[in-house]
Amino acid sequence: MHEVISKAGRAMSAGVLVLAAVVMGLPATAQAAPETPGRLVSHAAQPAGWGEWSRASIVEYSTEAVTGGTTNSAGLLLLPDAPAPDGGYPVVAWDHGTSGLAPHCGLTTSKAAHERPLLQSFLDRGWAVVAPDYLGLSAGADTVHPYLHTRTEATATIDLVRAAQAAAPDLSRAWAVVGGSQGGHAALATGNLATDYAPELDFRGTVALAPESHFEEILSRLDSHVPNLPVVDRMVGPFAGMLAGLRAARPDLDVNGALTERGRQVVDAISTSCVGEFDRAAGTASLGSLLARPIAEGGIGAALRDYMVVPTVGYRQPILIAHGATDTVVPLPMTLALLTRMRSAGTDVEFAQYPGGHEEIAVESHERVLDFVDELLA
After folding, report:
1. Mean pLDDT estimate for the chain
2. Is 44 among the domain residues?
3. pTM of the model
């Protein structure tokens, strides 16, 4: 289960700590046009044993496009073996960690193999699970994945819950969201938007494990003078992914103009890569070598903050954030800063700290998470 949020760890590593110091001082239904967000497009039940799941389906649905309008995306629907209780299966939406940017990097391709122990524990509690690929990570996607884009992480999650209601009538309207790493970022975005975006559902609360936050504060300060240090340059792949996503979300900005020729090559390569290929795609490039001018210029720094900031106000349901003290992928001080901002804004947040790092948080917090969600869905 430690692999649930560990893939990003190999791509980002302890460079965050140094960088922060440097720069901050089968059968399917008929196809339908994607007209309304959350509309079920197709529901393909998978044979028992697919991905070792006994009751799995791939749900294709309409959701918000990153530049407006709608597009299609996909996700998993997993059902418990036990019969549905009165009122239907409560639903847990799982938001996964960094998997890449290409249309073969989602859970519908991987069959959620890395997530299996955690998601099975949800099923064992009698909860149905929905798990979005996120925009751009499903087969046939018409856009690069807008990596860490707050809005579409949330809408992709909520719209899958909506579509799953049509795919499986034995689901309850009550649901909660859990996510780790990038998925922690997505879960907070989802929890902030859920009630207003889908008032017909009964949203109960949010769990975020080691959520990515405040990277925009660091990255918006970068320029070509970032020291060429190996520990810092482990951030090249994730940073290029954020720029690739911003470039897709904001075609009105001259993101390419902020990049050197080498920088454009790396961003292009990351755009077609899964997370395990980030190092190969980045090659020997350093962070500084990507940039032709400071990110803050041309409105890109401000746009990056708008693109990926974690909301601090507007939550109406309970929130649990869990983080490891020795996390070097998303260092603990970044979440402590987020907690300070949220609480200063009047947002009530439960916080649990554990001794391990990014890869261990899902295991160390497991019982606390199950108990918290159980209370939400009771």
Report:
1. 92
2. yes
3. 0.92
